[in-house]
Amino acid sequence: MKSRKVLITAGLTLVFGLLFVGFQWWAPSLSAERLTKEEVNQTAKDKYPGTIIKTTKTEGEEYQIEMQLETGVYQIRMDAKSGEVRSIKKETIVHAAEETTEKTPQKQLTQKEIKARISSQGDLEQIDFVQEKDNPYYKAVVNKNNEKITLILDPYTGTIIDSTMVADSIITEKEAIEIAEKHVKGTGDDTEFYQPSDQTPYYLVEVELEDDRDAVVQVDGYTKEVKTITWEDDEEDDKDGPE
Known about the structure:
Shape: rod-shaped
Number of strands: 12
Helix content: 25-40%
Oligomer: single chain
Structural class: alpha+beta
Radius of gyration: 45 Å
Distance between the termini: 159 Å
Strand order of the largest sheet: 1-2-3-4
Strand content: 35-45%
Largest sheet: 4 strands, antiparallel
């Protein structure tokens, strides 16, 4: 009987001893399954080359990592035990400067403001606003020392983007007379040259016809185009007025 108790006691001691040894072996392995913050960060870097901004551990055995990648800032959810990525989501960040740009669009300069900015470039002959898809601009033609220059300007700042010399030169008085004579079939009598600041230069050629009528022909100084014809009879009618 006594020997039986000894055997039972020895058996229980052996069982408890094995349980104790097993627990001592299992406990460290249990704690080893949970990754440290440094290990999580290194795992994230191995998967997604970038810079860690912030890492926090939640109560649900999960790490949340904020990471800067080439394409933006991402929020990464990672399992605290296995290091498995549960989700990755790109953050949408709207900078204050972008909000300001959207709320207050850039103001376009008026033609009058553009004229003031290019006054030193020469006498303005023509100015137009050109809307070319998403690239609007002002196109101006100025005359400087009897040479035409085409300017392309930023519509918001007035900055000269491009400047091109126009090859055309002003025609001579003789050419203007010949054009006027041919157009109304008469003889040139008198000529005057005008170079206003708001349009292209031109000649006014007085031409006498065979039927004793007189015509004043306006000839464009660059294009040689006949712009207007004023008959002497028309002027007299205008002066007389209605009876």
